[in-house]
């Protein structure tokens, strides 16, 4: 049992973290407090800058970056779109077949770019052949397949390829060396447990080629002195790419990220992948490397009738095991699967 497990309200059978993570009690409390302050007119946007900085620091700790590397966004696709717009005309981009659509679509729909789609198990080899940019999810949303990030980083370094890694299904449980890549982005409402509407990106200092396509006043080092005019100087750090914060969400976001950072991704990964592999063993699947499990031939509606919350993805039931799950959830899911397969 993880030390932080008691920080969450137990929801028996909840195995849908790949769709959205459950909030810790402190996260939900912070969200309610912000809503109350908003309603009462006491919300202080300037004071909430401290919560944004806490998010930068905690996310950096979770993905192996520095706080100055972290940019604030609203969604993964926003960051991917900014990267796409920063590439030169005619750039060749390599993406993985079947990846979550927000990763390839900004490149596919930019007529200036050439996009090559390759099987996931060929992504490292294709990177080694050379490309202007490689964009891929570290862990696949549909089935939990894991990319060898160390091998990908090495191939990109040797080939001189720029890199964008979506860690929306990796950050929080899988160690990531963000400074091995140009841009590492996560939608934080999944495994990071924040409210929806927060995304964070680690942008290494050498990636100055990423342009602030959505430049805002908050991209300045002194944002509250940069509200007006055309001559605002943007930061030299990653915050040059910031959007303005969703004020009602940032305190809750900081609480969520700090809780995970206090436990550490290695311990969270051992717990979460361990539960997933216990489940795999009980339903006759081989061990895997991620907490996401896809099961063929099972309707998630049948699992729901047994009190197990999962999702339907690619014609399969998708389950995800995380910090607030335990052996009771493994047994409930395995029993529900066996019943569904026997029906």
Question: SSE layout and pairings?
Answer:
Elements: H1 25-40, H2 49-63, E1 70-73, H3 76-86, E2 92-96, H4 105-108, E3 114-118, H5 123-129, E4 133-137, H6 149-159, E5 162-166, E6 183-187, E7 199-203, H7 247-263, H8 265-282, E8 292-296, H9 300-305, E9 311-313, E10 316-320, H10 327-342
Parallel strand pairs: 2-3, 2-4, 4-5, 5-6
Antiparallel strand pairs: 1-7, 6-7, 8-10, 9-10
Helix pairs in contact: 1-7, 2-7, 5-6, 8-10
Pfam families: Aminotran_5
Keywords: Aminotransferase, Transferase
GO molecular function, one term: transaminase activity
Summarize the structure.
The protein has helices at about 25-40, 50-65, 75-85, 105-110, 125-130, 150-160, 245-265, 265-280, 300-305, 325-340, and strands spanning about 70-75, 90-95, 115-120, 135, 160-165, 185, 200-205, 290-295, 310-315, 315-320. The protein is α/β, with parallel strands linked by helices and about 350 residues long.
């Amino acid at each position: 049992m993880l030390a932080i497990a008691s920080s969450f309200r137990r929801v028996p059978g909840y195995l849908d973290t790949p769709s959205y993570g459950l909030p810790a009690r402190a996260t939900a409390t912070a969200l309610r407090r912000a809503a109350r302050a908003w309603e009462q007119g006491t919300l202080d946007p300037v004071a909430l800058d401290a919560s944004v900085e806490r998010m930068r620091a905690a996310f950096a700790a979770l993905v192996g970056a520095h706080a100055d590397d972290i940019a604030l966004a609203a969604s993964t696709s926003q960051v991917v779109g900014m990267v796409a717009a920063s590439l030169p005309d005619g750039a060749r981009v390599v993406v993985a077949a079947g990846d979550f659509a927000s990763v390839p679509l900004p490149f596919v729909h930019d007529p200036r770019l050439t996009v090559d789609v390759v099987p996931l198990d060929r992504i490292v080899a294709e990177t080694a052949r050379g490309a202007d940019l490689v964009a891929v999810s570290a862990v696949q949303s549909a089935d939990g397949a894991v990319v060898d990030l160390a091998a990908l980083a090495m191939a990109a370094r040797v080939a001189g390829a720029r890199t964008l890694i979506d860690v929306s299904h990796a950050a929080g449980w899988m160690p990531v060396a963000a400074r091995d890549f140009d841009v590492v982005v996560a939608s934080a409402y999944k495994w990071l447990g924040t409210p929806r509407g927060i995304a964070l990106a680690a942008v290494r200092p050498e990636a100055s080629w990423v342009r602030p396509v959505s430049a805002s006043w908050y991209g300045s080092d002194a944002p509250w002195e940069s509200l007006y005019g055309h001559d605002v100087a943007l930061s030299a750090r990653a915050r040059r790419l910031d959007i303005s914060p969703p004020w009602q969400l940032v305190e809750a976001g900081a609480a969520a990220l700090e809780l995970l950072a206090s436990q550490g991704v290695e311990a969270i990964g051992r717990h979460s992948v361990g539960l997933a592999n216990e489940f795999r063993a009980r339903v006759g699947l081989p061990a895997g490397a991620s907490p996401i499990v896809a099961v063929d031939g099972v309707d998630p509606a049948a699992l729901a009738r047994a009190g197990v919350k999962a999702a339907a993805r690619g014609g399969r039931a998708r389950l995800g095991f995380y910090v607030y799950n335990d052996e009771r959830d493994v047994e409930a899911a395995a029993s529900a699967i066996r019943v569904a397969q026997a029906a």
